[in-house]
């Protein structure tokens, strides 16, 4: 099948912050009255030279430095210790997922504005479900999401990322959190195109490093920063089926 995705591989010096990612910096999503759902695929390519923290599929960032992301909690080697890191909860990590190098995994982060809850799911390509939810009520419902960043972060910490990312979808809406239950998320996991189109905010297929356009029709094109190259991902769950001919042989009897 055709390889796809964007790739970043960087390790920042202590205090320097991230230096390779693709992001949409004009998000302006008011989390006080709007739910948010982000899904996407990531393949960890290996450890990070000089740093054991990172491995980020997407980072949801607001104007006061809170929000949520997935990150490697410090594993020295594969399999890694991925979890959802919530910055508005004292940089607490929720959930524990164990992707190995060169495995394609499906990740979900969703926000419920009415309860101030971040929830995460993660599942390996080909899994029978999106896995169990890991949640935390953190009470951040008065800020605005300003950036949706893929495959990297810009914090002034010693973090890095050696990953590939593909097919990221984003939805917003008053009831998006409950709409995207485990069943709905599993359907999205198994489809390149959005299954639910109501409230679709952006859809970045990320077929390659040059494919940063928004396929939702909302014109939210990503901007690449640093060295972003083509990926080698090929999640079975979103492979496009191709037709194949077959011939039947038999004996006709009167």
Topology:
Blueprint: E1 4-11, E2 21-24, E3 29-30, E4 35-44, E5 53-54, E6 58-62, E7 67-73, E8 82-86, E9 92-97, E10 104-112, E11 117-124, E12 134-137, E13 144-150, E14 160-173, H1 176-179, H2 182-189, E15 200-204, E16 223-225, E17 229-233
Antiparallel strand pairs: 1-14, 1-17, 2-13, 2-16, 3-13, 4-10, 4-14, 5-7, 6-7, 6-13, 7-8, 8-9, 10-11, 11-12, 14-15
Report on the structure:
The chain starts with a strand and ends in a 21-residue tail after the last strand. Strand 8 and strand 9 form a beta hairpin. It is mostly beta strands and 254 residues long. The chain is globular and about 40 Å long. The strands form 2 sheets. Strands 2, 3, 5, 6, 7, 8, 9, 13 and 16 form a 9-stranded antiparallel beta sheet that branches. Strands 1, 4, 10, 11, 12, 14, 15 and 17 form an 8-stranded antiparallel beta sheet that branches. It is built from 2 helices and 17 strands. The relative contact order is 0.27. The protein has helices at residues 176-179, 182-189, and strands spanning 4-11, 21-24, 29-30, 35-44, 53-54, 58-62, 67-73, 82-86, 92-97, 104-112, 117-124, 134-137, 144-150, 160-173, 200-204, 223-225, 229-233. The longest helix has 8 residues, at 182-189. It has one domain (4-237): Jelly Rolls, CATH 2.60.120.
